[in-house]
Write a structure and sequence with these properties.
By secondary structure, the chain is an alpha/beta fold. It has six helices and eight strands.
Amino acid sequence: GLRVALFVTDEPREDAAERIGQGLGFRHAELNADYPETLARLREAEGCQNIVLLPDENAGQLTIEDAAGILFGVAADGYVLIVDSLNKSRSSAESDEDPPRIGIEKRLDAFRPLRDKGALVIFSAEANRSSYASRDESQRSSPMASGAESRSIEFTADALFTLRRDGEDFRVEIPKNRIGRMYEPFSLRLDEGPAAFRSIEEDAVRAEK
């Protein structure tokens, strides 16, 4: 089957583990050490056995290359590396003296060998302030150029999704998609039960405002 590595650097790994459990249908209140039977069922759940959550709780700091080595360490029909986030992760080629732009570009370079092996790489990244600071859309920078620190983000990505908070909802734009068709902007709402986004009709969004 498909092997997925979720490389979490922007929040505690426990938070990411809870959301995986919620997405698989487990109650958030039971995803903790007070409910060992629930955790045991989660570990055995279909869809969870092929997910590797990194860094391991017993490991030190990992690089993107380390995460890739763990991902490819087990034979599978396909591979996915999810990095959350690009801004807080690190590549083995970096040094502490690198400015933020160079760090971002070295991390993006670390993804190339994975893509050459056929892996799907998904990463989150911070947006620059000029892409969201103004309420006036005409005063905001282009969604294509919204990646913080380096324009290499827009040049490297095959598909680029931007998320912007819009009241209770999130507005999604797809300014670039080499691997599929283009879509009009649309809205999502966070369903806290399964910790997942769901699409909402544009007419409903307008009616609520």
